[in-house]
Amino acid sequence: MGKNWWKSDASGIPAIRIEPPGPKSEAMHRKTINHMRGLSGQVKLFPVCFDRGYGITLTDVDGNKYLDFSSGIYVTSLGHCHPKITEAVSRWAGRLMNAHDFTTPVKEALMEKMADVLPGDLSAFQLYSDGSSAVEAGIRAARAITGKHEFLSCFRDFHGKTMAAVSCAQMARGDVLSYGPFRAPGFYMLPRPNPYRPLFTTADGTVDTDRYLQFYDEFIREGTAGNAAAFVLEPVQGWGGSIFPPDDFFPKLRSFCDQREILLIDDEVLAGMGRTGTWLAADHYGVVPDIVTLGKSFGNGFPVTAIAVREEYAPALDQISASSSYGGNPMACAAALASIEVIEQENLLENAARVGDWLMKRMLAMKEAHPIIGNVTGKGMLFGIELVTDKQTKTPFDEAGKLVYQKAFKKGLAWIPAGHILRMSPPIIMDEHYAGLGLDIIEEAIDETEQAFGYP
Ligand SMILES: Cc1ncc(COP(=O)(O)O)c(C=O)c1O
């Protein structure tokens, strides 16, 4: 089986037989929501019912076949049902499903592989089964390492929905209002440099990273009890809209933390394991964090997540037990190991970087051509197109975001934009042909949306 395994199912996509969401989708969705509540905005806006996935395609119960431009939710980065990963999980599903946190042959192989591919001395690991639990473990680890208990994070970063993760994350306004105080004591959020919407600027109007750091310094002195254990950072804001920081931010934050003996927790649940064309998004900035969280692409669909900690802090991990019901079970280890091997064997870091550069050039041209595209961002196969009512005022154009989302979905693009930012994370196996097809659909939907809102 070669690296083009997914192409056998991709020719002729998108293939829309009946306008989606079709009658079967609607009927199944209606029955489901009799019981299942609290669905995401994307599902509410486009209630399609998916039946199968293969490589870069998704097929719904009405027989419509879509091009996948979000990898589930940044999860199936190596394509749906990669045969090697399916085979590895199935093998262990038929041999040994759970062995507490005892060693298994597949866990031993995964540990060695992770130590091999992660940068620097990130060589002490614990395994969990969702991203939020990995973030919790990262926070517990930071407390055990430093003996301190305060945490800093950034506005519009997202880290999960368990209580410590929520405490350092931005939550949707509706969620926050519905369950009251949601940030535990000792968790503080700070502004983060967004090159398109900078709060602090230099004389020429560009983002001023140093002033952000000066503000952090002031805040730590005046607003904390002097017990900051760690800065928790998303290297790229995923939920926030594929927002990359200025190139100097991560390295400067690393030095800032070092000077104050604060650990740097890099939450790579969304951006790590190949998504941006490198193993970690932090690799783009030459930074080795103290603690890294991994999830999503780590198991390519199987729920397996991890923390990775620098060697010098490994002893502290003995104070936080890694034992959990599902963490590191053999199927999970098999999925993670096979995913890393596939990335290596199919040269997918290089693929993500190459196709990503190509897509970025096209998106920059789109920005020039469209009055409602205010900004485009991306590295590897993680992108955002920000829609605005006016390029001067940069007013977010949420209504256009919704319409583009629905129109493109109807044309056969399965994706998950958020509000006025069109977030994209196609499988990193994709080539230029199919990536271009996806952008064609988006551009058509943007054209139609501009017409609907009376733009020239
Ligand atoms: C950066 C980041 N951290 C943590 C999480 C939480 O992961 P999970 O949903 O698997 O608990 C997410 C989920 O989207 C995320 O994007």
The assigned CATH architecture of the largest domain is: 3-Layer(aba) Sandwich
Mean pLDDT: 96
Q: Domain count, please report it.
A: 2
Q: State the CATH class of the largest domain.
A: Alpha Beta
Largest sheet: 7 strands, mixed
Shape: globular
**Which parts are unreliable, with pLDDT below 50 for 5 consecutive residues or more?**
none
Beta-strand percent range: 15-25%
Hetero compounds: pyridoxal-5'-phosphate
Number of helices: 15
Structural class: alpha/beta
Characterization of the model:
The chain has 15 helices and 14 strands. By secondary structure, it is an alpha/beta fold. Strands 4-10-9-8-7-5-6 form a 7-stranded mixed β-sheet, with helices on both faces. The protein has a 4-stranded mixed β-sheet with strand order 1-2-3-13. The protein has a 3-stranded antiparallel β-sheet with strand order 11-12-14. Helix 10 links the parallel strand 7 (about 230-235) and strand 8. The termini are far apart. The mean pLDDT is about 95. The protein binds pyridoxal-5'-phosphate.
Summarize the structure.
By secondary structure, this protein is an alpha/beta fold. The protein has helices spanning 23-32, 41-45, 71-74, 83-93, 105-117, 131-146, 163-167, 173-179, 209-223, 249-259, 314-317, 330-345, 348-369, 398-410, 432-452, and strands spanning 50-54, 57-60, 65-68, 122-128, 150-154, 187-190, 228-233, 263-268, 291-294, 305-310, 373-379, 382-387, 413-414, 421-424. Strand 1 and strand 2 (57-60) form a beta hairpin.
